[in-house]
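If your schedule permits, I should be very grateful for your opinion on a structural question. I have a record of one protein: its chain in single-letter code and its fold written as discrete structure tokens. Would you kindly read the sequence against the tokens and tell me how you understand this chain to fold? Thank you for your consideration; the sequence and its tokens are set out here.


***
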Amino acid sequence: MSEITIVATLTIKADFQAPLMDALKKLVDSSRAEEGCLQYDLHQDNKNPLVYVFIERWASQEILDIHSKSSHFVSFGQFTKGKIESLTINLMSKVY
């Protein structure tokens, strides 16, 4: 099995920062509890507080696929509809 790293950048709409912060924290806590989650950290941009960056590490692609179907992840996706300006997801594999 090969470890997968994700760097996801999320820009939220200003009107939704407070309610999304609670949802972001719940997503992080629930994801960290999943089997095969090696790291799940949330960062906020120092210059633009509407930009958040997730840095995630998963034990394998199979584990990541299970996470993507988890109830907390699906619920988060539904909750954020219309509240996000942009989302960029980069999947990476460690080379060194």
Notes: The mean pLDDT is 95.
